[in-house]
Amino acid sequence: MSDIKTNGPVLAADGTPLKRSLARALRVEKTRALMLIAPLLIFVLISFIIPIVSMLFRSVDNRIVEDTMPYTVAALKTWDASSGALPDEPVYAALARDMKAAAEKKEHTRIGGRLNYEESGFSSLFRKTGRAAKKFDLDSGEPFKAKLIDIHKDWGKIETWKIMQTHSVDYTNGYFLNAVDMKRTPDGAQMQDDDKRVLLKLFGRTMWMSLVITGMCILLGYPVAWILANLPARQANLLMILVLLPFWTSLLVRTSAWKVMLQQQGVINDVLVWLGFIADDSRLIIINNATGTIIAMTHILLPFMILPMYSVMQTIQPSYLRAAKSLGATNWTAFWRVYFPQSIPGIGAGSILVFILAIGYYITPEIVGGNKGVFISNRIAYHISTSLNWGLAAALGSILLAAVLILYWAYDKIVGIDNVKLG
Amino acid sequence: MANTQNEDAFVAFERVQKSYDGETLVVKDLNLTLPKGEFLTMLGPSGSGKTTCLMMLAGFETATHGEIKIDGVSINNIPPHKRGIGMVFQNYALFPHMTIAENLSFPLEVRKIGKSDREAKVKRALDMVEMGSFGGRRPAQLSGGQQQRVALARALVFEPELVLMDEPLGALDKQLREKMQFEITHLAHELGITTVYVTHDQTEALTMSDRVAVFDDGRIQQIAPPDELYESPQNSFVAQFIGENNTLSGTVKQISNGKCVVQLDNGEEIDAKPVNVSKVGERTTVSIRPERVEFDKTRLHADAHTLKAEVLEFIYMGDIFRTRLRVAGNDEFIIKSRNAPDQVRLQPGQQIEIGWLAEDCRALEA
Amino acid sequence: MKFTKTLMATTALTMVAGVAGAADMADEMTIVSWGGAYTASQMNAYHKPYMEKTGVNIISDDSSAEAVAKLRAMNEANNITWDVVDVVASDAMRLCDEGLALEIDPDTMLADAPDGTKASEDFGDLLVSECFIPQIVYSTTFGYRTDMVGDKAPTTVCDIFDLATYPGKRSLQKRPIDNMEWALYCDGVAKDDIYDVLGTDAGVDRALAKLDTIKDQVVWWTAGAETPQLLADGEVVMGSTFNGRLFSAIAEQNQPIGMLWDMQSFDLDGWIIPAGLSPERQARALDYVYFATDTQRLADQAKYISYGPARKSSAPLVGKHADLGIDMAPHMPTDPANAANVHLYDYSWWADNRDDLDAKFQAWLAK
Prior knowledge:
Chain A is mainly α. In chain A, 67% of the residues lie in helices and 2% in strands.
């Protein structure tokens, strides 16, 4: 850089401003670099970013109500739910009109299914009404109020209309409220009925058990990683194969193998009985409960803990321990004050990896978890594949994602993310 | 100091052997004593056993046979952390997760020294190596030379009587290395600590030590003060290993009064000092330092033998001139001359005669 | 704006891929079913004869367990890769509600019985949804270890709740359906009143309270193969599963297992055709279904697996097991001897109450 002071911009040799020259020179390079990463970028966008954005979107999207029943939603805006009176004829006329249109497009059952998530009975209410609505003569001028109540008595209940009104917004917090055992009601957010509260408990359990699994992985993985890092290369490679072996069998096979191992008539119990440690009639119950989930998942996730720990430990030179001992530290002090702090980045990386994988697991808890060992992801899977309540599944997934991000952020604040090393 | 008696030995190796695999010995029957306050360097090529000796002394390796004593007490069964030996490692081994002050405080903490005492000692040690203002930094924020000083301060902060250094200057550039060489010797002598220093750099060994032990093949080849080692190598290995050296082979022709004449294989004769030869007719390798070779006949003894030589190459090295000659069929014969105003610059192709003082040319075993 | 464009581009891409794929599959169709012995029976009874007759190549996909979710996803991506899908009746209703399955007119799209009876009459009540083409009647019922119940084999479904006489673990499906009904029935509710009682909060509490009495001893299963395995391992003394699974454990593997038909819960399994197929694929799917659900084919399937054909006209044609040579009729859930006391699962009631009861059931499980 020259020290010459100029009033205008610095110029290149040919008189164009230097900045522009530089930008032009860099543009080609940038374009080439962009072209090189484009396939990955597009892949990530399509396979990762778009699904996540669409999931976030789905967790609040409630346009189906207004799209299917535009007249009813508009007419209901003027109805005062607290009045204690049923809506007037125009609302029923609007409903009849929407129903007829929806039934002709075969969309009435869909919205029935949507509202049935909020209150039992809507499914059949809409199916039944839709069937009748196909024959409605909208121009007849006859009162639809009586007709609809005649078709299904629920149309004569204020509760039904309240729910319709509450859930007629285009974007709803209803799914998120459901996800934390609350519900959207005409009187605002309220706690879910006592006997339906389960999701918060599952969130808590998922977090807690994932923590336990992470802790178990640290306890079991640390010595293994230490041995790996300190063995001569040949033995280390052999041990490494043993560590990686679980990766090469299918998850389902491994989990089923644990079933054979852990069940009451299984291998572990048989051996313990044979050795005389436990009586035949008091075999241990170590499957279909939290214990089973923790054992099987610790085994499955252990390599994810060992690998980052190992690669960090490999970089810790043995001379640090020697230095500590030469300075007067006992073996334990040398380990605890010198070796261990340097291995923390590996533990951190392994823990983040294992924890994040653990809270998203559902196959293993499903198979060995019984009723006390299932995770929130099992509910997500249920709502995706069985109940088709994708909005709730998306809300649960979003909360899980947020939890992971918050934990990641907290970890960054406490330990520092640059302290995480995968190798 | 070369004649130190066993009685006042501070550190003693007695018939120490070491084998890793049970088949070969990396240290063979080592006997070595150091008096208190001595700066001893173990010098040798890699694999010569010098580092193993250091590690045995530090306690990180156990001797397969023999005893190592400090102050007359065998330390064979004392674990490293109880030996109270300061150590400086090749890569410094400063704990990266601690600040400089914490690094220095570490040996004091494990010795359960009170906080105020600790702080005073740390400060004093840092000031000693002129790193007083760096206490709050981390090792990674320091330059190599600074890390070296801290490592030194850490090895000294708990006031050990014996300090071991394992090639501590290996990673530094030349200038810094020379500066540190001076500082380390200076400190060691000032504090009166006994130092065992391991290096493969002979210049370092010569400039720093009270005595140098030259290791090869698991044995000490020679142990002597630097000047003696350089000027009176006792065998071909030491002669070759320490400093630059020209060698010629021949047969002893006559020998008398601490002088001998050696007939080279091409028939020419030279003067030499018999070191490892005793009778006429023995084969010998003579060794002569490049800077002791004279090509100005007027500066040689009148009856000195001379050799014909042809100049092959002249290299200007600043402070000295280095000239490569062909002498008695040897193309790698080097002479060095000081760059002085009256010094002659030899030209390639020039025919000259060279000679030396008989005592500068040592007739060693063949 | 940009995002919408990207989305549209992606959709367009997948559509192009879908069209290209469809063109490739001119002589192929993908039929989705449950896998295992069940798919094998369909292969023998339907797929092989159909392939021989038409030359169309049928590809089997064992994804029925996730069929509803996958069909919805395919529909959203506008790329339906399945031609015919085997689902249980409740899933067919759900798919129909969602507009993901084709509506079927049985009388024009399905074969008449050999005697000329219209399909709608031949299938009768089993046509529980406009989109559903019934195939088999199966039941969820109990099996028990004959060597673990002493000399008093269980005779009623309520023995499940009798821990004193039959100590040990029992396996139940991890869902409220059937379990709630059995619990109420064994708590003294008359069969006809079960759904009325279950429709009230008190009824739900009552059912769960009954289940509470055995909760500690229950192993909950999600896949049909689990109970036969648990019985074989001696992990449970009795457990519910599909009757065909128990048949193969007993008749084909000779396990010491007995059948308990009391209060077996009837359910239906059948075909749906995804909505939104191209006209030629839809025509072929309909052709397949017409062929595969005629009287003779449905009867043929019973040679390979102990599920009852959904047509009344098929029942007399049920013969012997293809390999074992035993009479299959007595192993059918519909056999009069087995069907003395059956539980009729109310599809529409569950369609309304499934979401609510499932939440309650899960909350109870987690307690």
